[in-house]
Amino acid sequence: MRMASLRTDSRELQLLLSLSLILCIICFISGCDSSESNNTIFTIDSLRDSLEKQEDFIVFCLIERARFPHNSPAYSSSSGGRRVMSSSSLAELFVRETEAIQAKFGRYQNPEELPFFPHDHTPIQAAAEAPPPFKFPQFLDPAASSVNVSRDIWNIYFGDLLQLITTDGDDGNYQQAAASDLVCLQALSKRIHYGRFVAEVKFRDSPSTYIPAIHAKDSETLTELVTSKAVEETVIERVKKKAEVFGQTVTVDTGGVSGVAMDVNATNTYKVDPSVASKLYAEWVIPLTKQVEVDYLLHRLD
Amino acid sequence: MRMASLRTDSRELQLLLSLSLILCIICFISGCDSSESNNTIFTIDSLRDSLEKQEDFIVFCLIERARFPHNSPAYSSSSGGRRVMSSSSLAELFVRETEAIQAKFGRYQNPEELPFFPHDHTPIQAAAEAPPPFKFPQFLDPAASSVNVSRDIWNIYFGDLLQLITTDGDDGNYQQAAASDLVCLQALSKRIHYGRFVAEVKFRDSPSTYIPAIHAKDSETLTELVTSKAVEETVIERVKKKAEVFGQTVTVDTGGVSGVAMDVNATNTYKVDPSVASKLYAEWVIPLTKQVEVDYLLHRLD
């Protein structure tokens, strides 16, 4: 009886060891950290859900920046010029110094966040009251995760977008305007660099779909593989609608659904032109996100 | 002919001088800066318009903070405890350092902004590329303008409001949560301290209404004088509606007005409970604004 039991235990042990070995091999192939099941953290649905919520925040940011006029003295060098973004402008100096403080307080411990300028990212863990570091899941492939289009985002924001969401004028609130700029930039950067997570999920779901094009360094095929025209059109349409809803004037005594003013034809009553929100996504956010996805995949097997 | 012309010039000069003297006396009595007509800058209508726009921003801020869970490690001292806001917590240290940067970049040159912590407010005008200082209108009475309820706002925000707009949990985004806290605090502070501008306009419009109660230091009468129950009820109702509109989930394929989901009965679908937004105004924002108005008036004739 005892011998039989020992034999059973031994067979179960062998089975368990074999299963563990198989699991380890699967984890090694898929590149995941064997200490945690990162595959369960991000799925294409959870990422789409997050991206949809980030849309709300991006529209809010645009509306918030639009509270102030352009305030060109915050952006120009002494040579002036509305479209000149001087590297020694108040706005850029403010962004640099604020990012440094945010880095010190741990912002970039979260792999979803990327700074616009390099900083010493050592957070303040040495301080007596600093909370213990949070264990963010390391889901991305280390080699590919350094993909970065921050410079493009910066140039589009200050070169194009800012002029489309603000009126001409100067109300002296330069710091407030620059703080709103930073919030917009960070929201756009997080959204666009989420392409790394989307690409990783897509790759893990079906590596064989992407591996030949990655080996051939075929950006065009990879762009086709990560493109879904139907999803893109839905996103662009939804962002426009969000700008209409969140940018409307809400009054108590207006008619309509639940007393909400909702005249979709009166574009000039919105705080940010809804067509600017859709243009932002159609021309910049979606193409840059796809560029991030493709660049990430190109480095996925490095 | 020439003599007659000189006499006429002399009479015109006398008339001009007399008119200037009268204007100076009027300006001195009303306490305005003679170099600009500050009376035309702020009116009760322009202030109401600004306060209404600030409501939108406050609701946005609440929704933005609600993206993150409570993240209690950002607030507690090492002794822990959810409702403990430690002065050496990550959140407070972050607010102090960020405010110092914002002060340096000129935030508090605008009399509408008040810091939560004292800073060296000397802005960076010495820097070669800093824009020339903006001439903000000095509309407030200098003695009364120092009225301040920042400590109350701080305690209400961290002691009550934060728990009402966040879910329990810890996602590690401590800096991001603290940055959202600061934006909420600043929006509430600006809104509540706008009571100083409202009180100044009311006083200038009808000094004789307030002077007896100011001389008698009669806070109760002053509170009655600055109270309009009908306006307060409209504001509370409107803020609730804004939380419904801005906190809803917008989809492309949902029915309703312009494809916007708008189920006012399904409270749990809003990003921030609309009743929390109305409670914020009914219990805290409106009473504190009136307190600021009364405190301001009590010092208006110092």
UniProtKB/TrEMBL annotation, chains A, B:
EC number: 5.4.99.5
InterPro entries linked: Chorismate_II_sf, Chorismate_mutase_AroQ_euk, CM_AroQ_sf_eucaryotic, CM_II_prokaryot
NCBIfam families to which the protein is assigned, alphabetical: CM_pl-yst
GO biological process: amino acid biosynthetic process; aromatic amino acid family biosynthetic process; chorismate metabolic process
Protein's pathway: Metabolic intermediate biosynthesis; prephenate biosynthesis; prephenate from chorismate: step 1/1
One function term, GO molecular function aspect: chorismate mutase activity
Chemical reaction(s) catalysed: chorismate = prephenate
Coiled coil as UniProt keyword: no
Domain (Chorismate mutase): residue spans on this chain: 174-293
UniProt keyword annotations, A-Z: Amino-acid biosynthesis, Aromatic amino acid biosynthesis, Cytoplasm, Isomerase, Signal
CC terms in the record's Gene Ontology section: cytoplasm
Organism lineage: Eukaryota, Viridiplantae, Streptophyta, Embryophyta, Tracheophyta
Subcellular location: Cytoplasm
The name this protein goes by in its record: chorismate mutase
Organism of provenance: Platanthera zijinensis
Class of enzymatic activity (EC top level): isomerase
Annotated signal peptide: 1-34
PROSITE patterns cross-referenced by the UniProt entry: CHORISMATE_MUT_3, PROKAR_LIPOPROTEIN
